Amino acid sequence: MAKVKRISARVCGEFAEPNPAPSEQREIAALAYKFWLARGFHDGSPQEDWLRAQRAVCQTRLRA
After folding, report:
1. What's the pLDDT tens digit per position in 7-34?
2. How deeply is 40 buried, as exposed, middle or buried, from its count of CB atoms within 10 A (0-12, 13-18, 19+)?
3. Among 24, 45, 58, 61, which one is least packed by beta carbons within 10 Å?
4. How far apart are CA 28 and CA 16, in angstroms?
């Protein structure tokens, strides 16, 4: 689990939060779930879905 936190902290560069707020965690989780749904509930990796969603959420917040 510690490895995931280290990787996710670097996803958006210096602006990444190593421990996102609960509301941001829910947003990331919902988007990761949508990625899993889009794959038809198989293949891929939950960790990759989470990191992809985290990047998307972070980039959206940086643009705002």
Report:
1. 444 556 555 566 778 889 999 999 999 9
2. exposed
3. 45
4. 13
